[in-house]
Write a structure and sequence with these properties.
By secondary structure, the chain is mostly helical. The protein has one domain. About 80% of the residues lie in helices and about 0% in strands. It contains eight helices and no strands. Helix 3 runs parallel beside helix 8. The longest helix is centred in the last third of the chain and has 28 residues. The radius of gyration is 16 Å and the shape is elongated.
Length: about 140
């Protein structure tokens, strides 16, 4: 129970945030594929929401690493999916690398929005932590 409280209170390490990001993205993709057989707007909205959550999880010293995480998490997720079935994120005749590039291109807008929300959340957390340190 202590571990979950630490994660929920913004005390996660960069490694924990990366694991949550990768597993969360793969879980969202799995659910979307089970529902419709392809990555749809459900995946995009889920990824955006996950990115916002990733910005709220890290401890202060892990914030710099987490600031680079959304594009890496999406790329790693697409690589895993591309190994299993390249046609899910790209075209059916694409190789794994080409399917990752196609997937990143097709989901560029949700990636940009999710990345921006992650950075905003990190920035607001940093600002509130600095203010709390000054006041307390």
């Amino acid at each position: 129970m202590q571990r979950w409280h630490r994660l929920a209170s913004g005390q996660a390490s960069a490694r924990q945030v990366a694991a949550i990001g990768l597993l969360g993205t793969l879980a969202i993709a799995l659910v979307d594929l089970a529902l419709g057989g392809r990555l749809s707007m459900f995946f995009d909205l889920g990824f955006i929401t996950l990115c916002l959550g990733l910005g709220l999880l890290p401890r202060r010293e892990s914030s710099y690493v987490v600031a680079f995480m959304p594009p890496l998490v999406l790329m790693a997720s697409f690589a895993v999916i591309g190994v299993v079935d390249a046609g899910v994120v790209g075209h059916s005749d694409d190789g794994m690398v080409q399917s990752v590039i196609t997937g990143l291109t097709n989901h560029a807008a949700p990636l940009a929005i999710g990345y921006a929300l992650c950075l905003v959340a990190l920035g607001l957390r940093q600002r509130s932590l600095v203010g709390a340190t000054r006041n307390g």
